[in-house]
């Protein structure tokens, strides 16, 4: 009887420490795996999960909750079957309201710092194209699994934009100096197998389910 009581108390303690997520997210689906307590955060802002102020703010909130709850880990993925995230929402930068733009840029840096410096392990199940800001989010995760036949990279140069220094530093910490130099100069997007060859990703997957399975195996 005493052993059963202790077991019940341990179970209740574990449940109480699990993160409690808002059900009011508009741009995310958040779920916790009952087997390993790993949280999966799914980007859900059709059509291409472009990163606007709302989406960035929700990601930031989830990262804060996971840190407070001492989460054992998080997987970042996408609801789209073609795009992980297309990067920054250009509408946030086209004739922006100065105050909103300041909030947007702060939110982007906030997500970068929280995800890149998270105290819990993170993995990205990249189930679609991941250019520009999408590549940044993926690089911020410690382990990256990418589905075949998609592209990833910092392609800002192709759009006539210079990548922010913290985008560049993150890539330098992920792949070699020379590969980073060439990638940023040309705005290169790496195919999945090319990304694996240079170390931009850690594993290839056949589909989203396979990517999630391999991402879970990281923890």
TrEMBL record:
What cellular-component terms does GO give this entry?
mitochondrial matrix
Gene3D superfamilies, from UniProt? 2-enoyl-CoA Hydratase, Chain A, domain 1
Q: In which pathway does it act?
A: Lipid metabolism; fatty acid beta-oxidation
What's one Pfam family the UniProt record gives for this protein? Answer: ECH_1
Primary site of residence: mitochondrion
Q: What SUPFAM superfamilies does UniProt report for this protein, alphabetically?
A: ClpP/crotonase
Give its localization: Mitochondrion matrix
Q: Name one GO biological process term.
A: fatty acid beta-oxidation
Q: Does the keyword Transferase apply?
A: no
Q: Which reaction does it catalyse?
A: (2E)-tetradecenoyl-CoA = (3Z)-tetradecenoyl-CoA; (3Z)-decenoyl-CoA = (2E)-decenoyl-CoA; (3Z)-octenoyl-CoA = (2E)-octenoyl-CoA; (3Z)-dodecenoyl-CoA = (2E)-dodecenoyl-CoA
Record's CDD domains?
crotonase-like (cd06558)
- Keywords on record: Acetylation, Fatty acid metabolism, Isomerase, Lipid metabolism, Mitochondrion, Transit peptide
- Molecular function, one GO term: delta(3)-delta(2)-enoyl-CoA isomerase activity
What's its job?
A: Key enzyme of fatty acid beta-oxidation. Able to isomerize both 3-cis (3Z) and 3-trans (3E) double bonds into the 2-trans (2E) form in a range of enoyl-CoA species, with a preference for (3Z)-enoyl-CoAs over (3E)-enoyl-CoAs. The catalytic efficiency of this enzyme is not affected by the fatty acyl chain length.
The UniProt subunit note reads as follows: Homotrimer.
User: What name does UniProt use for this protein?
Assistant: Enoyl-CoA delta isomerase 1, mitochondrial
Q: Which organism encodes this protein?
A: Photinus pyralis (Common eastern firefly)
Q: Organism classification, top ranks?
A: Eukaryota, Metazoa, Ecdysozoa, Arthropoda, Hexapoda
